[in-house]
Amino acid sequence: MVPNKRIVYVDILRILSIVAVIILHYTAEVLTSTNDFNSSSWWISNGFNSISRFAVPVFFMISGAMILRTQITTYREFYVKRVLPLLIPLLTWSLIYGLYNQYYIMRSRMNAYEFVVDFGYRLLTDRNYVHLWFLYAIIAIYMTVPLISKFIKSCSEKDLRYYLLLWFIVSIAYRFISDTVFRATDQYINIPIMNIPFFMGFLGYFILGYYLFHYELPLKLKNILYNLGIVSFFLTPVATYFVSLRSGVLDEMFYGNYSMTTFFMAVGLFVFFKEKEATISDQVNHKIQKLISSVSRASFSIYLIHLLVEMMLSGRTEVEATFLEASLSLIVNISIIFAISYITVKVLNLSKTATYILFGGRG
User: Fold this and answer.
1) Cβ proximity of 243 and 251 under 8 Å
2) Which residues does the UniProt record annotate as the domain Acyltransferase (predicted)?
């Protein structure tokens, strides 16, 4: 790999994922505000929300692919370069969203002392704003990286396949079976042997990203993953409709980050764009590659700011909207949120101080 060379398919995956995150948050309002599962607005929101579910797993996979290949010299250097730039925006944006929510949305009359106490509690317990949970999760994983990276680099490909297979069984397959049994019988199954902490949670996606980045899969397996990914994109909205219809309210069984369909969508996309890296690099001109790189570098900052932009500037899709109205509303508002978020980030990046305080030096 040429030093400092941008990895185009990783940049594209970041851009697709941040757009998907914006779609997830924008469509959530319609999905949670009506139980009319046959309305056009619900179906449009369900469709776009369903096919965007790959976003969070892909973000974790990209993080694992990028950071686990780096050389870690000392714990102190790693924390200063990697963890601190996440802690700073967590504090900053928790404060921004906390102030906005308390004094603009809720019209609170808290005095300064009451706000500081409330803010401190919410900061510790991840209750300041809905999307900031990602920072808590990624910081927690980053804290393990100095040890995990040593474990990963000492593993053979066969060792990593074993880990990923066991993680898939525990975190994806077992959860899917448990959810299915619960919806059929109203009883959760509990198999104690499946409680293996190291093989649970987002760490699996983190290591999966490293594995897919560094190792080449057999052609037959790639084709299987492509096909399962395509099937999952079509299956998720339909399956969500039927389980929600049965429950009477939105059922997020197929929306979860560990759902079977979300897993195959994320893996299928990652493998597909990795395979197309050479083709994309050859066919996309330098100016477009620079734009892709610019948007990709801003994706973390866009993630932090986009909900504020959405609350302040975007319109809403009416529950009674027709199919065409709901589609246009979604496309226009997502485009507005994305464009304004990106432009705002780039303007703020003109100041190194603002970039550091707001985005941990990223941009």
Assistant:
1) yes
2) 8-341
pLDDT, tens digit (0-9, with 9 covering 90-100), for 168-225? 999 999 999 999 999 989 888 888 888 888 888 999 999 999 999 999 999 999 999 9
Q: Where along the chain do its domains lie?
A: 8-359
**What does the pLDDT average to over 135-154?**
94
Count of residues making up the chain? 363
Q: How far is CA 172 from CA 54, 65, 189, 217, in A?
A: 14, 20, 15, 20
153, burial (CB in 10 Å: exposed 0-12, middle 13-18, buried 19+): exposed
Question: How high is the pLDDT of residue 3?
Answer: 42
Tokens describing residue 58: 């892909």
**Positive or negative: CA dihedral 187, 190, 191, 197:** positive
Sequence-separated (6 or more) residues with CB below 8 Å from residue 169: 194
- What phi, psi does 109 have (nearest 5°)? -110, 25
The stretch 97-107 carries a mean pLDDT of 90
Question: Hey, is 174 helix, strand or coil?
Answer: helix
Taking residue 314's Cβ as centre, other Cβ atoms within 10 Å add up to 19
Mean pLDDT of the 242-266 span? 96
State the distance between the two ends of the chain, measured CA to CA, in whole angstroms. Answer: 23
**Strand, helix or coil at 73?**
coil
How are the residues of the chain apportioned to helix, strand and coil, as percentages rounded to the nearest 5? 75, 0, 25
pLDDT digits (tens, 9 = 90+) for 304-323: 999 999 988 767 788 888 99
